[in-house]
Write a structure and sequence with these properties.
3 helices; 103 residues; 86% helix; mainly alpha
Amino acid sequence: MSEMTQATRDKMIADFKLVISDAEQLLKLTADDASGKFSDVRGRLGERLAAARTQMSELEAAAVAKAKEVAKATDNYVHENPWQSIGIAAGVGFLVGLLAGRR
């Protein structure tokens, strides 16, 4: 999972939150149905949604912590190696310029 990009994680988190929200709305809409089996399923779904919401919060916190860690490592590298950082930025800018100029 370490190879997953931040944008992919953010999209997955947003999609999962939407699924949780839809499932919670479905639970609310079916709250009036008192049949035994349906009530059992609704109870299990409620428990699973609570667990999923907790897990999403943990994943989101981990993603934020990782992003902060990467930002701090980048900041440290730039401060420790300013000329190399400028060279890398110039090289990337040059490549982007070449690729943009070919269109």
